[in-house]
Amino acid sequence: MTIGFRRVPVYVWLAVLSIVSPAFAWGETSQQAVAMGRETELIAIRTLAFAGPDGPPSAVEERSRSTIRPEEGFQSGTWHLGVKAGGTDTVKIFANRAPDVQFVPVFFQIGYTVTDVHGPFPVRGSLEVIFQPTFLVTTHPETEVGGGASILFRYNFVTGTRWVPFFEVGAGILQWGLLLERDLNSQFNFTILGGPGINYFLTDHLAIVGQAGLHHISNAHRKSPNVGVNSVMGLLGVSYYF
User: Which residue, 94, 52, 123, is CA-closest to 217?
Assistant: First the structure.
């Protein structure tokens, strides 16, 4: 058998090698190409899964989504939860007399910023809408508890510091157990309130709040008398922004 192989001409062996060698090389190359293709496909799938439909988020985008920066103002989509309370004293505003009524207001606030920061300094800022559940504890002339809710509009100013002043105004409803025969003889009433205030941010999210303002209670002339209760108020509280 060995003698038979030796009798095969050399050029025949060369021809066989010239055919077989490329075939082996092609097979190895194909396997490598398939392996590389699978690796590339895997990398592409992982990249798309991480990036999402709009591409991978940049560091700036991630920071802006996750961090509140009170020095730069509140952008649209910012929420805030807050509570504030204080004292009041009645004043003459819409009538020639003022009923002697004192009460302690407690306001809970759920706020949502509806505009981005806009405008030039010193009115640069953004607009916030606030839903405000309300409790009033009357201390004089008798002890009574009232409850209601208001919708407020607050404009937060940008100062470039952790001091963020604001002005808010709104209206609401109030169920009040106190009856004043000469001034306000109704339990279901309407309220108008507002005034300037300021936040000081202890952190990027947590602030202490101080505010002064006016508070009006009347029944919109549904019953008589309707002199109403008009008060100046001072408030302190805390707010959390996110």
Answer: 94
pLDDT single digits (tens) 194-218 = 999 999 999 999 999 999 999 999 9
Q: pTM for this structure? A: 0.72
Rounded Cα–Cα distance for residues 138 and 101 (Å): 8
Grade residue 37 by pLDDT with cuts at 50, 70 and 90.
Answer: low
Q: Which amino acid is at 147?
A: G
Domains in the chain: boundaries: 2-51, 74-241
Note the pLDDT of residue 28: 47
74-241 CATH choice from 3.50.50.60, 2.30.40.10, 2.40.160.20, 3.30.230.10: 2.40.160.20
Say how many residues make up the chain: 242
Amino acid found at 202: L
Tell me how far CA of residue 60 lies from CA of 51, 54, 57, 67, 183, in angstroms. 15, 15, 8, 10, 58
Q: What is the residue whose two structure tokens read 């077989």?
A: 20
Q: What is the pLDDT of residues 129-185, one digit of tens each?
A: 999 999 999 998 889 999 999 999 999 999 999 999 999 999 999 998 888 888 888
- pLDDT above 70 covers what percent of the chain? 73
Which residue in 210, 215, 213 sits closest to 176, CA to CA? 215
Q: Maximum CA pair distance of the chain?
A: 135
Residue 83 phi/psi, 5° resolution? -145, 140
For residues 37 and 23, give the distance between their C-alpha atoms in angstroms, rounded to a whole number: 21
Residues in a beta bridge with 54:
none
